[in-house]
Amino acid sequence: MPWRRRDVLRWLAGGAIGAAAAACARRLPSPEISPEATPPPTRIPVWLPGPERWEIASPVPITPTREFFEVKYSTIPRVDVETWALEITGEVERPLRLTYPELLAMPAVIEMRTLECISNPVGGDLIGNAVWKGVRMADLLAMAGARATAQEVVLHAADGYHTSIPVELARDPHSLLAYMMNGEVLPLEHGFPLRALWPGRYGMKQPKWITRIELIRGEHIGYWEAQGWSKEAIIQPNSRIDAPRPGMLPPQPVEIYGIAFSGPVGIERVEVSTDDGRTWMEAELIRGPTPYVWTVWRYRWERPEEGEHVLRARVVQRDGRTQPRGRGRLLGGTFPDGTDEQHAVRVVIQRGG
């Protein structure tokens, strides 16, 4: 049975904070956004199997693979691609066993996608944006003949990790099994030979090193879900202030900018406050190609007055939901559903600062 919110205190008494925080064990630098008014598009060359080559032009930053945050459940498994195969079993008419070359031979999809860890704290860097190539999960379900009795899709990984998603989400045209990242074969630390990408869900639902997919009736409780984390893991609205950093600034116009991300509802606008939330101004947005890609936002603070100021940023979703102020919740507000709390930066406007 999954743990309930009322069990959290008992769970903490068992010393589980360290295990929960380890859901995203490593942090790497986030890409810096140009302070210019209109940053140039990022162009990244992407090589496909065979002689084909292409480029993507993006108005939002693409995180270099070497800087992309890493998430692991235990140790990174060593997968022998010569013997590896993807199995699809359970509530299907035609169980499948697909080798790596057979997957590469299937019709491919290339998409930009932002990934965020459910443990990403307010203002955190456990988020990154990349270009991925893979196959649609819906195509595999069709090949296997998914039965109408199937309710969930359970994913099993080579490191022992397991989780599940609803069959309806697996059929979404943006649900992919990826084998390339930023134009290269998927690196081992990011899931080689195969990882999942589901739209609008946190990384805990998108396992790496996939070996088996099982369609089941009823409900499956995954590894992190059994420890109290969200079963749905739907991405919460998130805005981060990348500049300015906390500290002193001279009394001149200030470029305030950062990134924002949200779930499938999408971002209507990003608002910025320079007076700790008493008043709000709308920021300029530079959107990615889909709602599943982060948005760059910026606001020019024309006449900052001398003294101390608390800068805040908040997302307003298309359904009207707005990021709240911090409430001092467990694990920096991330447990159990991920945080939606506003990021705040304290600055002092001072001559000679």
UniProtKB/TrEMBL annotation:
Molecular function terms from GO: heme binding; molybdenum ion binding; molybdopterin cofactor binding; sulfite oxidase activity
GO biological process: sulfur compound metabolic process
Domain Oxidoreductase molybdopterin-binding: 75-224
PROSITE patterns (UniProt xref): PROKAR_LIPOPROTEIN, TAT
Xref: InterPro entries: Ig_E-set (IPR014756), MoCF_OxRdtse_dimer (IPR005066), OxRdtase_Mopterin-bd_dom (IPR000572), OxRdtase_Mopterin-bd_sf (IPR036374), TAT_signal (IPR006311)
One Pfam family hit: Mo-co_dimer
Residue stretches making up the Moybdenum cofactor oxidoreductase dimerisation domain: 251-325
Name recorded for this polypeptide: DMSO/TMAO reductase YedYZ, molybdopterin-dependent catalytic subunit
Taxonomic source organism: Thermoflexus hugenholtzii JAD2
